[in-house]
Amino acid sequence: MKVILQNLTMKFPSRDRKKHQDVVAVNDFSFEIPDGKLIGLLGPSGCGKSTTLNLISGLLKPTGGRIFFGEDDVTDLPPEHRGIGLVFQNYALYPHLTVRQNILFPLENLKGKDRLTKAQMQEKADAAARLVQIDALMDRRPGELSGGQQQRVAIARALVKMPRVLLLDEPLSNLDARLRLQTREEIRRIQRETGITTIFVTHDQEEAMSISDMIVVMKEGIVQQIGRPQEVYDNPRNLFVAKFLGTPPINVFEGQVREGKLYVGQEAVLDLALGKENLPKEVYVGVRPEGFLIREDGPFGCELSGVEVMGRDISVVSTHKASLNPAVRAIVSAESGPLAAGGQVRFSLKPGKVFLFRKDTEERIL
Amino acid sequence: MANRKSGGLKGWLYLLPAILFLGFFMVYPLIDVFIYSFEEGYNSASQTYFGTGMYNYEYVLHDPYFLQALQNTFLLVIITVPLSTGIALLISVGLNSIKPLRKLLQTIYFLPYVTNTLAVGLVFMILFKKTAYSEGLVNLMINWFGGSSVDFIDGPYWAKMFVLCFYTIWVVMPFKILILTSALASVNQDYYKAARVDGTSRLRIFLRITLPMISPMIFYLVITGFIGAFKAYSDAVALFGTDLNAAGMNTIVGYVYDMLYGDSGGYPSYASAAAILLFSIVLTITCVNLLVSGKKLRY
Fold this sequence. Notes:
Helix content of chain A is 23%, strand content 33%. Chain A is an alpha+beta fold. In chain A, the strands form 4 sheets. A 6-stranded mixed beta sheet of chain A has the order 6-7-8-3-9-10, sandwiched between helices. In chain A, strands 13-12-11-14-20 form a 5-stranded antiparallel beta sheet. Chain A has a 5-stranded antiparallel beta sheet with strand order 15-19-16-17-18, with no helix packed on it. In chain A, a hairpin with a 2-residue loop joins strand 11 and strand 12. In chain A, helix 2 (99-108) packs across helix 3, helix 2 packs parallel to helix 4 and helix 3 (118-131) crosses helix 4. The mean pLDDT of chain A is 87. Helices cover 76% and strands 1% of the residues of chain B. A two-stranded antiparallel ribbon of chain B has the order 1-2. Chain B has helices at residues 2-36, 55-62, 64-97, 102-114, 117-128, 137-144, 157-185, 189-197, 202-230, 234-240, 244-247, 252-261, 268-296, and strands spanning 39-40, 51-52. Chain B is globular, with a radius of gyration of 24 Å. Chains A and B meet through strand 6 of A and helix 8 and helix 9 of B.
């Protein structure tokens, strides 16, 4: 089922009565989510991603815009008639019911011709449980399960009615780091097996990047960029997106453009491609950590402050006067040879990993 | 190890004041009452008695006043505990589902709790008591609807019982509403959202989610309600005066009190036997309650 958002807008009345200004949680969001894809809604907290999810689920009514599931306009439908499955951040499993009863719960609500027989319900619940691999835990209560198992039960409960769209609100945030890795693969697998269009919300860019078919980066209610994870990473539209994606984060410097060359501090660090004469003079320079190469005669010098060995790679930590981050982090291959502790380290830059941004709008220019 | 031991000693030391207090004022009297109840004709002034045995129990259990008190108490318990808990639940759910005026209504419902007993008694007089000037507000209303007046204070047994139950329910309600509204408010809203997404009907949400979630609190209210109703006495006095035996509205606690200090007073042995009987009734019922709920309230 494809999901179409048309100029979706959600305003909340301001708490502060003196300021007659609404809080815009979601601003003019238009996007067509293709059928059967896994979409990550990504952004810092307060960016409107959960609100967007609640709008799609129907728990909130938008103040403007429409929502379509396929051809159906569902904007005015209550949640139960939209055919969605929703997994809450804290799972919201009913603690007094067993796993089986929890999974059966949505089915037991069906009325009229949709009503299934007892045997059919059990069959569906078993199928959902098998899909998320919790069929051995059916008679336990949520309190007796680990966080990861609870998560699976919540997904099974959301899937048992075979929803048209599956919505996950911060599905991994309550799990520990190891389980998170496992569970996100699990979500990917379940989504692939069922082919249900799935939208999940996260503030963790790594999570979103690793399993999504597409990511939507949001900030303050406004969509910043939509695209395939790698695409967005390689071609950020603005400084916010560039900073938000990637660990370690992108290094940002104050820079100048003079005579087709990019200057950071006093040094000309990169020759810019020709035909970019109308570039503004003052720019922000973003360099991905993997965009550095250690060269003794490299054009870019930094004050070395430490080296972290991470096995395959090493992370070179240094400082630079023009850097906006407290430290400049470069990830270089371990074969780059030994580095002297202290003193200067010189880099050359990979052109494809260097981005230039306008200082005023923070839009990307190169 | 040594550290641990001294820690244990220290712990006991901290507990000592409470243990001494409870021992003197709870455990010792309880044992004492238990002993008196088996001592025939115990006299607290001369500290003498005629003999030991079950005589006191035999007497009390054949005393029509005690049987009357027993009946009254049981009726009171059976009527007021379920009714007050049920009504409190309805009101709490109502309060929980409205937004405007909630705070005001909550305050109003809580007022009886902070109102002086005498003032409450006065209100009930206005409502129910026949005086030289009026028949009481309730009778006025009955007359409006074409019924004939009932004397609620000195009239038939059922009328007096009705007033007593009404009064008890009214007095215990605020506390129950307070407990239940806070229990309802503490239920995570996500459960309701999840239920909504699944298209659960309101009744089913209430029965399958709300009720189980607040069941520990309901259970607490039922147990304390049972115990409280079994111990009822002052309510009856406030309504019917001190001579409850004559009014036929005595309770078990009232009977115990009368046996000690009332007109028929000066019988600590009978009073002790009646008190032990009450104790065993409350104990049994609480145990049954715990057993029943232990099976149902597990999550």
